[in-house]
Task: structure prediction
Amino acid sequence: MFPSLLVPLDGSSFSEDALPAARRLARLLEARLHLVHVIRPAPDADLKSPQQDLEWKAQIREGAETYLDGLATELEEDGIRVTTAVLEGGVPLALDGYVKRSRIPLVVMTTHGSGGFRRWWLGSVADAILRKGSAHLLLVRPWNGAEGEGEGEVERDFHNVVVPLDGSAEAEAALFPARQLARRFGSSLSLVRVVPAPLELTSIYGVAGVRMEGEGHRRRKEEATEYLASVVARGGDPVPESHVAEASAAAEGVIQAAREMEGDLLVLSSHGRGGLSRMVLGSVADKIIRGTTLPVLVVRPPEDP
Result:
């Protein structure tokens, strides 16, 4: 499924919070784990002489190699195959170049709790990989959402894998890897489709609101139910459960449904209706990623560039 994984590390305990999920996946999938650090140009590089710049890079590289080697030793003692690499240049480009050269299908990264990416090294890298990266991307939250107080050595299992669908073939591209992961983890699989919530009228006198469920709303719910049933009928193991959610916004519906179903991993396709590929521009997928507290696996369909 994923013969190799990459975890970008910037030296912080926050970035290391991606390691428990990566470790668990590497063990289950018998995958090689690549630990990568990128040396960015020095802020005052223009003021340094060539010799000073070389000395600075050598010092930084030595520290990065020592750091990665220490992490690799711990993982190798656990039976995981590890490769380390120290790169130079702009972080997103350096990482994506390494991913392509090494043919790595999955990048595992930490994001900043609910409410969005950490807005520095990891934030800009995650945004760039979401927009233009060539690998699938697993975004995990720190164990309790706080930097430096992550899950440590606790490995994460996924007990219920949730896949939001919008009826498109592009969104259904997430089904195959989701099903594979569910089998590997021995997890259940749940499908969600969101339909617009009916209008609710509230009296100005404080009388309880009245739901206006018209024929159009009932038809949309029936169509969503029939669609999910048709997906389930295609077969495959595990047999998924399906859920039609009502919400004023698609992302809100997915997040709420996943919470109600006690999901602990969301699997999304990077393309689908509503421009899901434009993740940093306010799309449904972007809102799900930034709004949920769950890990999110962003799958790139085969035709994705």
Summary: Residues 50-77 form the longest helix (28 residues).
